[in-house]
Amino acid sequence: MRIKARMGMSADGYVSNVDGVPVIALAKDFVPGASHGYPEFISGCDAVVMGRSTFVPALGAPAWPWGDLQVFVLTSSPLPTETPAHVVASKGGVVGLIDQLRSGDHLARSRTDQ
Questions:
Q1: Cα(109)–Cα(27) distance, rounded to whole angstroms?
Q2: Is the entire prediction scored with pTM above 0.90?
Q3: Number of neighbouring beta carbons within 10 Å of residue 35
Q4: CATH architecture of structural domain 45-113
């Protein structure tokens, strides 16, 4: 399994604003899904992992940022009801997520089964 990581951070060390919106999305030259090397980065990915603070604001985005990729959310809270079915709440933190990815178990179950 190959894992790639990407993080957008402001010069003063913030990853998101107080509303949870990633700071990279607030840059004046930001184009969702097209700028800051995103297409090149995501092109070889089979899944996306993020925390709840990044995920929840994306539910209100004009376009779903991750296409048809499997999305895992690291959270101990239930996901909002409007969460797409292909989004999985990871159980057991990072270790549990790795177990889910290795088992392939997430592929046969929907969000509501997690």
A1: 37
A2: no
A3: 13
A4: 3-Layer(aba) Sandwich (3.40)
